[in-house]
Write a structure and sequence with these properties.
Layout lengths: L4 H11 L2 E3 L2 H7 L4 E5 H5 L5 E7 L7 H12 L5 H12 L7 E7 L3 E6 L2 E7 L9 E7 L2 E9 L6 H12 L4 E3 L4 H11 L3 E3 L4 H13 L4 E5 L5 H6 L2 E5 L5 H6 L2 E3 L6 H15 L2
Parallel strand pairs: 2-9, 2-11, 9-10, 11-12, 12-13
Antiparallel strand pairs: 1-13, 3-8, 4-5, 5-6, 6-7, 7-8
Helix pairs in contact: 1-2, 1-11, 2-11, 4-5, 6-11
The site of magnesium ion has 8 residues, from helix 3.
């Protein structure tokens, strides 16, 4: 028997390194007319590095002590920022005390008890002064310092946004939990003009729902736990697989297994071709 077009398209998507979970998911990819993208781990590589460690004067901590506190609290987290902070501490040879009572709040940060102190690492209250993502560390409710982290743009980020613009007729929207300044720099480098920053996971869902209420069929591409609700709400949700969280991979309609963002517009094209062949 000849393979039905949508099944052939799934096989072809596999050759592009994209796992499409069903024929329905394959079909919906070709129906999208709007794209929305997460920043960290989607347009950027999601492998940030700690570039600045800044204890607050009066905190009684030096840079190593601040990094140790933050890394101990972040140790159980799978977030890219957490992994970067733990790596920075290891690179400096800092031994990490174990953390108890760890909790992570998607899109916000983490809390844990370290050596009898309640430590949080998360969104900085004040906006960043440069391109870096800045996180604030508190100990027993008092701010003790900040860490700055920078992430590289994916080499194929601008080509992908250009291709999605060609496919949908509109530049993609950027939806990120990070600060407005970092988001603006990534948007500028990728030809995006519609930028929504400082979003909580539910704000990403609302942004997708707003677009869909105005009659759009939205493709949302993300990677984090914080992206899972928006991946579920979108007409078509695609997760970046390499560093993606389990929840994002489970929720998405398709997973980019080989780490190439250009595969996303490629599978939209495969779907459109297949749908023309379905009678
Ligand atoms: P994005 O939408 O860009 O992928 P997230 O929603 O995961 O980003 O995170 C948004 C912001 O919340 C981060 O920029 C950071 O300030 C804070 N944050 C989230 N998780 C953590 C964490 N594990 N440690 C420190 N800060 C975090
Ligand atoms: Mg992300």
């Amino acid at each position: 028997a000849t393979m039905p077009p949508l099944l052939s398209a799934i096989a072809n998507a596999g050759r592009h390194g994209v796992l499409v979970k069903s024929a329905v998911a394959m079909e919906r990819l070709g129906e999208i007319d709007t794209a929305a993208l997460d920043k960290t781990g989607t347009l950027t590589e999601g492998a940030p590095e700690v570039t600045d460690v800044r204890p607050l004067p009066g905190s009684g901590l030096d840079a190593d002590a601040l990094l140790t506190l933050a890394a101990a609290a972040e140790h159980p987290s799978e977030h890219p920022l957490a992994r970067a902070i733990v790596t920075a501490a290891r690179t400096r040879g800092l031994p990490l005390p174990t953390a108890d009572d760890f909790t992570a709040t998607p899109g916000q940060g983490v809390t844990a008890t370290v050596a009898g102190h309640v430590v949080t690492v998360g969104r900085a209250a004040r906006p960043a002064s440069d391109a870096a993502t800045v996180v604030e560390v508190t100990r027993d409710g008092t701010p003790v310092g900040t860490l700055a982290l920078t992430d590289r743009l994916r080499p194929d980020a601008a080509a992908t946004t250009a291709d999605l613009t060609a496919l949908t007729g509109t530049a993609p929207t950027l939806l990120t939990g990070d600060n407005a300044r970092t988001a603006a720099l990534v948007a500028e480098a990728t030809g995006i003009t519609d930028v929504r920053a400082g979003l909580l996971p539910e704000d990403k869902v609302n942004a997708v729902r707003d677009l869909e209420r105005s009659g759009r069929k939205v493709l949302f591409v993300g990677d984090g736990v914080n992206d899972a609700p928006a991946l579920a709400a979108a007409h078509s949700g695609v997760a970046m697989g390499r560093a993606g969280s389990d929840l994002a991979l489970e929720t998405a309609d398709a997973v980019v297994v080989r780490d190439e963002l250009t595969a996303v517009p490629a599978v939209v094209r495969l779907s459109r071709t297949a749908r023309r062949l379905v009678v």
